[in-house]
Amino acid sequence: MESRTPPATKRKLFILPGSKTVRILVLIALLTAAAWLLRVPMLRAMGRFLITEDPSVQVDAVFVLGGSVKDRGVEAARVFQQGLGTRFVFTGAPVPTALDALGIDSTEAACTRNSAVEAGLPLELTTVMNVGTSTFEEAEALLAYAKSQQWDTVMVLTSCFHLRRTGRVFRQTFNKAGIAVLLHGAPSTEYDEARWWESEQGLIMVNNEYVKLVYYLLKY
User: Fold this and answer.
1) Which of 90, 102, 121, 161 has the fewest CB atoms within 10 Å, i.e. is most exposed?
2) Which CATH number do you get for residue 154?
3) What is the total count of domains within the chain?
4) What is the pLDDT of residues 60-102, one digit of tens each?
5) What is the 3-state secondary structure (H, E, C) of 117-132?
């Protein structure tokens, strides 16, 4: 009789992760832990990158841009009280949504000026320009006005997190005309710039500003 070799028994093989896979998983875990531990310094650095404020010196005029009506108006009055400027120009063509809903036709420029006057800025030192729906439009309008007044040095006042983008837009146009631009930030009353990620308003502001930075770099 022929002897038959019994068929080989099929065995299930369990493939254990190799050392390379283990190293990758450990690296991912370490990076995740490091990011969590360093989250506060990294988030704070993201905010600081946007704030490019210049030393405060006396200027020919202060340009207060539209938006954040209360914060920028109060800061304009503070700038006046510090003796840094004697002419204040307010811009911003849009009508704030809340006022528009009430049928009140008052632009951002007018509202910010009113806020500044209430905070102590003399009315006779102010000028309202109902122009500008963007930082670029405001820069163009204010450059023409600065030339007409023969100003050499101006301060641009806006929200702290807007300073980097605003500085790039204004200096691009003003420096060509020989007009020096200094940046000044108005602190927010809705969130703490040093801990912006703890507030919904702060999160929205920083997120939007980084998006706008990219947009302005590509468009202008």
Assistant:
1) 102
2) 3.40.50.620
3) 1
4) 999 999 999 999 999 999 999 999 999 999 999 988 888 878 8
5) HHCCCCHHHEEEECCC
Q: Tell me: pLDDT of 1 over 50.
A: no
16 in any annotated domain: no
Q: Which helix (H) or strand (E) holds 58?
A: none
Q: Is residue 89 part of a domain?
A: yes
Query: Which tokens belong to 175?
Result: 């420096």
Q: What share of the chain is helix, strand, coil (3-state, %, to 5)?
A: 55, 10, 35
Q: Is the pLDDT of residue 151 over 80?
A: yes
Residue 109 and residue 128 in contact, taking contact as beta carbons nearer than 8 Å: yes
* Measured distance CA(54)–CA(170) in Å, rounded: 14
Q: Which H/E stretch holds residue 153?
A: strand 153-159
In this prediction, residues 16-43 reach a mean pLDDT of 75
Could you tell me the residue range of the domain that residue 106 belongs to?
53-190
Average pLDDT, the chain: 89
DSSP 132: -
Residue 155, beta-bridge partner list: 62, 182
Examine residue 98 and state whether it is found in any structural domain, yes or no: yes
- Amino acid identity of 183? L
9, pLDDT greater than 60: no
Strands, sheet with 61-64, edge to edge from the N-terminal-most edge strand: 126-129, 88-91, 61-64, 153-159, 180-186
Is the pLDDT reported for residue 52 higher than 80? yes
